[in-house]
Design goal:
Chain A is mainly α and 320 residues long. Chain A folds into 2 domains: 66 residues; 252 residues, MetI-like (MetI-like fold), CATH 1.10.3720.10. Helix content of chain A is 75%, strand content 0%. Chain A has 11 helices and no strands. The longest helix of chain A is centred in the N-terminal third of the chain and has 45 residues. Helices cover 32% and strands 24% of the residues of chain B. Chain B contains 10 helices and 10 strands. In chain B, the strands form 2 sheets. Chain B has a 6-stranded mixed beta sheet, sandwiched between helices. Chain B has a 4-stranded antiparallel beta sheet with strand order 2-1-4-5, with helices on one face. Chain B is globular and about 55 Å long. Chain C has a two-stranded antiparallel ribbon with strand order 1-2. Chain C is built from 17 helices and 4 strands. Chain C is flat and about 85 Å long. Chain C folds into 2 domains: 73 residues, no CATH class; 249 residues, Orthogonal Bundle (MetI-like fold), CATH 1.10.3720.10. The longest helix of chain C has 32 residues. Classes of the chains: A mainly alpha (320), B alpha/beta (283), C mainly alpha (381).
Chain lengths: 320, 283, 381
């Protein structure tokens, strides 16, 4: 372009050197900037990975000494064994998943398969997103007043495992709806069409084709949700209570109070009721981290295997 | 300079010399007149897939070269090798050389950024940036740096005029480019590529996403642009190749089957497969 | 009269009367319209079979309603029964409920400070990480970063609190005391809390930013590079601006997490509701760090001792309602911002072809949803 040619000559006169060199220098600078940014990005990623590994090793190294079979399965008067907490953690987890997964799946089926886009779906989406944004401490208070207490029209379950599990349901429902939606959307439309073409009505398609086909994708999401539930503290402290009965905790009675590992960890650090509270707290934290690793890496890997195994299952279903 | 065992004059690249007996290349795709770009034994692999097989051809300066063939024949892959867009594709590997003037663009010291300024590209789908029309056209200049506002304005206007878009958009340069029609967007993309004054313009099926009227406009534009630029255009549309180009290459499954002046290839194809393709027997 | 009563005694009857009245008196058009709306064109048999699913959806909506109504229903007694004025509540600097003083100003300031600190620290790192994952990392590194992000998101907040006490608080204390040259500060306060929160919200912002970047058409990258831009120029001038609304959505949702986080902050912030988190002074280094508190921490700490019916109890619910409103605002803002993006990370119905899976970034999957901890604003495609 002539304009540029003109400017080149102007620039040449001004700088006393060919403009073409200036161009090359600029390109070199741009290349240098590109390289610097690339190295910076790599180092940020490396640093964060290092930080994560350091955190995990730090926690495990702090508390590993106390962990043995007796520690995680027994309880005693002194309160320095966490058997009840381990049991409660899984009890509450399973109880809330039993309520939460069908609810979330049902809602997702309604959203994905039945509802027409419009006011209804907007309201449901608004509800899930808003609920997802509610801080867990508020849900803890809500769980106390609505599930545990009987004042002001609460359900009066008492400070109990049930109240805690129901609070976790409210906390994780949005996430499970979302996860189930994704799982359902990952089912190819051909399956729906194939099923409809065979004369199945919508309900049959949903229950016999879509739900089985969505299970593998759902498993991953449920495992991650479970990982979050295990670590939850703020929502549980006032709903399941801060301690467990020393005897009789090995029971399926949902109306017993029962603290989870995470709540127990808080109690140990905040109240320090036990003689060697600090040490037990460290070991409890270690247990939590190990559970996290088991759920996020171990079970996810198993779910991956399951996925592949189920891959044959879905195609069988589509023919049936 | 047809069919001479040359290239020795291009310095130390004897290895690049091809004989007529080389597999896959019946045609050392030579041309008469000035050569702008030239590939020598070009191979492109996607992983284990051999997408371009030993293609050697010359692209004439300030003319339009059309590359045609059925889908999947490798014509787009070939085009993208000409400004090293394959660098972006994970798993893609290129061997052989591509000469721009007399420098090998795949040489280790080659500055890819500079290369892409010299060899511009227009893509199959219009891909304007989600910004104003002005910012789209001036993007290349901003990236290069060293232009003041008035130079940019001037270049933007010239580029838009060259792309026959100026009259349509001069009043709304600051509006989003995404508000333009498909044909206008594609011409904007051409203007954007012209703004950095490339020597070669690669066009990868630039009209395939456009309606017939927009297509016609782009074709008229190509006709004008060849006064100043060397153009290589990939098309699956035979009529388009016949209308706009001076040279035409026919690709099939990664091989360059035939390369000749457009008139010749359409009236007297040398290869049976070319003839089949042109007469519509496959593709 | 509280919110619960307003809802059950006014809103619900009003809706029932309006819809019912329209159905009975509105003539065939309205009847048709309402029926069409309620049945969505399904046959009676299909409608009956769909009841369980619709019920689940209703429960989700009810869950939100009940939360809002119960929190809101208890929120106004501070003003109605305990006669604290609205202005006194929001501008008062003394939080001493047993003494009848519930001034939440310093709590709000504390929440703001901690949140701003966390977001300001976390955003650049998160965006850089997202850019790394989508634009720079080779496939193996991408796959490696996915579980890293999930583990960061999965570490329980109470464990973050412990890590903060043991690793971050001493660091902050050391740095400040080194600056001053004397031992003045134990390290508990907004800086430590903000630093730990920054790590906690990092997975949220990062994974939403990854989704936003992965949703950009490949053509943008190609166009920019074909014009002779370097990768960094492409990122800075094209990709980041084009995905800005998605990234901003992530920042807002991260803000929401930071505002609502309780336990980690409770361990680190010092839990003193009557201090400003940072006080500016005339002597070097011109600021004092001191233990402070936030809305969530004060709710959490006070609820232990509060007896129903006391001012303490009522004030906690008022604080909760304020927090609820803030989180609603943030969700609404994130929805608004997400809806303005030119390229959306939607999950479209035609399944099996997801953009992010095409680019090899395992995201917008269940995993990413879990990482973000809050459902992404799924736009109605």
């Amino acid at each position: 372009m002539e304009a540029i040619a003109k400017d080149v000559s102007v620039a040449e006169r001004r700088t006393g050197q060919p403009q073409i060199d200036a161009r090359a220098a600029r390109r070199a600078r741009a290349r240098l900037a590109d390289r610097i940014v690339t190295y910076t990005l790599w180092s940020i990623a490396l640093a964060l990975t290092g930080l994560l590994i350091y955190f995990i090793f730090y926690i495990i190294q702090q508390g590993a000494s106390l962990i043995n079979w007796q520690f995680v399965t027994q309880s005693n008067e002194a309160g320095n064994l966490v058997g009840p907490e381990v049991f409660n953690t899984f009890y509450i987890l399973i109880l809330s998943l039993l309520i939460c997964v069908p609810l979330g799946m049902g809602c997702a089926i309604y959203l994905v398969e039945y509802a027409r886009q419009g006011a209804v779906t907007t309201v449901i989406r608004f509800a899930t997103e808003t609920l997802a944004g509610v801080p867990s401490i508020i849900l803890g208070l809500f769980g106390f007043i609505f599930f545990a207490s009987s004042i002001n029209g609460g359900l009066g379950f008492g400070v109990s495992r049930l109240a805690g599990a129901l609070t976790l349901v409210i906390l994780n429902l949005p996430l499970l709806v979302r996860v189930s939606e994704d799982a359902l959307r990952s089912v190819p439309d051909e399956l729906r069409e194939a099923s409809a073409a065979l004369g199945a009505n919508k309900f049959q398609t949903v229950t016999r084709v879509l739900i089985p086909a969505a299970i593998p994708a759902l498993t991953t999401g449920v495992i991650l949700t479970a990982g979050k539930m295990i670590g939850e503290t703020a929502a549980l402290l006032y709903t399941t209570g801060g301690n467990s009965p020393v005897t009789g905790w090995f029971s399926l009675n949902p109306f017993l109070p029962g603290d989870t590992l995470a709540v127990h960890l808080y109690e140990l650090r905040a109240e320090g009721i036990v003689a060697n509270a600090q040490q037990i707290a460290n070991s409890t934290a270690t247990l939590l981290i190990i559970l996290l690793l088991v759920f996020n890496l171990g079970l996810r890997y198993l779910a991956g295997l399951l996925n592949r195994w189920f891959a044959g299952g879905t195609s069988r279903t589509s023919r049936g | 300079m047809a069919l001479q065992p040359e290239i020795a004059r291009e310095g130390s690249r004897e290895r690049a010399i091809l004989g007529p007996d080389t597999v896959n290349s019946q045609y050392i795709a030579r041309i008469d007149g000035a050569v702008k770009m030239k590939t020598v034994e070009l191979n492109v692999y996607y992983g284990s897939n051999h997408a371009i097989k030993n293609v050697s051809l010359e692209i004439p300066e300030k003319q339009v070269t059309a590359l045609m063939g059925p889908s999947g024949c490798g014509k787009s892959t070939f085009l993208r090798a000409l400004n090293r867009m394959h660098d972006l594709t994970p798993g893609a590997r290129v061997t052989g050389s591509v000469l721009l003037g007399d420098e090998d663009i795949y040489a280790p010291k080659e500055d890819v950024v500079h290369l892409r300024q010299r060899v511009g590209m227009v893509f199959q789908r219009p891909n304007p940036f989600p910004r104003s029309i002005f910012e789209n056209v001036s993007y290349g200049l901003r990236v290069q740096g060293g232009y003041n506002a008035s130079q940019m304005r001037e270049t933007v206007e010239q580029s838009l005029r060259s792309a026959a878009l100026w009259d349509e958009v001069k009043d709304r340069l600051n509006q989003s480019a995404l508000g333009l029609s498909g044909g206008q967007q594609q011409r904007l993309c051409i203007a954007r590529a012209l703004a950095v004054s490339p020597e070669v313009l690669l066009m990868d099926e630039p009209c395939s996403a456009l309606d017939p009227i927009a297509t016609l406009k782009i074709e008229e534009l190509i006709e004008q642009l060849k006064q100043q630029y060397t153009i290589a255009i990939v098309t699956h549309n035979l009529q388009q190749a016949a209308r706009v180009s001076q040279y035409t290459g026919f690709f099939l499954t990664g091989n360059l089957i035939e390369y000749a002046p457009t008139q010749q290839i359409f009236s007297r194809p040398q290869d049976q497969r070319t003839e089949d393709f042109i007469t519509g027997r496959f593709g | 009269m509280n919110l619960l009563q307003i809802f059950t005694e006014i809103v619900v009857p009003l809706v029932v009367i309006t819809v019912g009245g329209l159905y009975l008196l509105g003539g065939p058009t309205w009847r048709q319209r309402i029926r069409q709306y309620l049945t969505m064109g399904y046959s009676r048999a299909e409608l009956i079979r769909m009841i369980p699913f619709a019920l689940c959806a209703v429960i989700v909506i009810l869950a939100l309603l009940v939360v809002v109504l119960f929190v809101g229903g208890n929120a106004f007694q501070t003003f109605t029964r305990d006669h604290v004025s609205l202005i006194a509540f929001f501008t008062g600097k003394v939080w001493y409920p047993d003494n009848g003083q519930v001034g939440a100003l310093y709590l709000i300031v504390g929440t703001l400070t901690v949140t701003v600190l966390a977001v300001v620290i976390s955003t650049p790192i998160s965006v850089a990480l997202a850019v790394f994952v989508t634009e720079v990392a080779p496939p193996w590194a991408r796959q490696f970063m996915q579980p890293v992000l999930e583990l960061f998101a999965g570490i329980p907040s109470i464990v973050y609190g412990l890590l903060g006490i043991e690793l971050v608080v001493p660091l902050v204390s050391y740095a400040y005391n080194y600056l001053v040259g004397a031992f003045l500060y134990a390290g508990f306060g907004v800086i430590a809390a903000g630093l730990v929160l920054a790590i906690m919200i990092l997975p949220t912002i990062t994974s939403i930013s990854i989704d936003a970047l992965a949703a950009l058409p490949q053509g943008l990258r190609e166009a920019s590079l074909a014009l002779g831009a370097t990768r960094w120029q492409t990122i800075r001038r094209t990709l980041l601006p084009a995905s800005s609304s998605g990234i901003f959505t992530g920042v807002i949702l991260g803000t929401g997490r930071a505002v609502g986080e309780t336990l980690a902050v409770a361990f680190l912030v010092g839990s003193n509701p009557n201090n400003l988190p940072i006080q500016f002074t005339n002597t070097f280094p011109y600021f004092n760090l001191q233990p402070a508190s936030t809305i969530t921490v004060q709710i959490f700490e006070d609820f232990k001792e509060a007896t129903p019916g006391s001012l303490n109890f009522d004030a906690i619910w008022t604080l909760s309602f304020v927090l609820l409103l803030i989180s609603f605002l943030l969700v609404a803002a994130s929805r608004y911002v997400a809806s303005r993006g030119a390229y959306k990370a939607t999950n479209q119905r035609p399944s099996g072809r997801r953009r992010s899976s095409e680019t090899g970034v395992a995201s917008s999957t269940a995993a990413a949803a879990a990482v973000t901890a809050s459902a992404l604003p799924a736009s109605n495609s």
